[in-house]
Design goal:
- The chain is mostly helical.
- The protein has a two-stranded antiparallel ribbon with strand order 1-2.
- The N and C termini lie far apart (about 60 Å).
- It comes from Streptomyces pseudovenezuelae.
Length: about 240
């Protein structure tokens, strides 16, 4: 067996129990916060810095508990992480509702600014739902690497790697069964991007009711944004 393929069977962090890196999750959260800060004031549900400040307050203890890698999970950690995602998601959906009202309003004059805001909301939508899938699937990022597979909660998503063990060898060597592969944040962000562009699952299937609900909400939000933005852009260009 080629060395690269042999290493693929034993290179996943689960084998070392190192945990998933903290930095990508923090970076994604900060990008979502920054996109919210840049929205026009009339799309915000509170003074500009109130919700971002709250989100940073929730983020700091999460970093303190797992500063470099996600290896420790307590009830407080789980509550804080889910609350943070919920706050970002709820504020973005409210901003989307306000945006829709503004875009269909005949009196609105700065349509171009709203088009830019719609892109910000769409990007935040992708990030926050990716974070939600990441936090919920199989008990969250800590459980996925620290808990034995037989003790993991039921999966919310089925990735292609979860069913590739009977494929050709160069594919099966990277499967969940062979290499102990587990999804990371990048995998969930990819699911979120494809769901926001295709408005349906692509290669990753939702299994649980909550996963199907979240993907439905994301798809509808992305579809409404796209349709209204296209309609408004056509009216502006004419």
């Amino acid at each position: 067996m080629p060395r690269a393929r042999e290493e693929a069977r034993f290179r996943h962090p689960r084998h070392e129990r190192r945990g998933e890196a903290r930095l990508p999750g923090v970076a994604a959260t900060l990008v979502a916060i920054a996109l919210y800060l840049l929205l026009p004031q009339r799309l915000l549900i509170a003074p500009r810095y109130v919700l971002p400040a709250l989100e940073c307050v929730l983020l700091v203890p999460l970093i303190a508990i797992n500063p470099r890698r996600l290896t420790r999970q307590t009830r407080a950690f789980r509550v804080l992480s889910l609350t943070l995602v919920a706050v970002i998601g709820a504020s973005n959906l409210v901003a989307l509702g306000t945006l829709i009202h503004e875009l269909v309003s005949a009196e609105v004059k700065d349509g171009r600014a709203l088009l830019v805001a719609s892109l910000q909301i769409w990007l935040t939508n992708v990030i926050v739902f990716g974070l939600a899938y990441w936090e919920l699937d199989r008990g969250g990022p800590v459980s996925r690497t620290q808990v034995p597979r037989e003790a993991l909660p039921l999966a919310d998503f089925r990735f292609s790697q979860d069913e590739n063990d009977d494929a050709v060898q160069e594919v099966s060597d990277g499967s969940s069964k062979t290499s102990d592969w587990v999804p990371t944040l990048m995998d969930y962000l990819y699911v979120s991007v494809t769901n926001s562009t295709a408005f349906s699952p692509t290669d990753t299937m939702p299994l649980s009711s909550r996963a199907k609900f979240l993907m439905s909400v994301e798809s509808v939000a992305a579809l409404l944004t796209s349709l209204l933005v296209i309609a408004r852009a056509v009216s502006i260009l004419h």
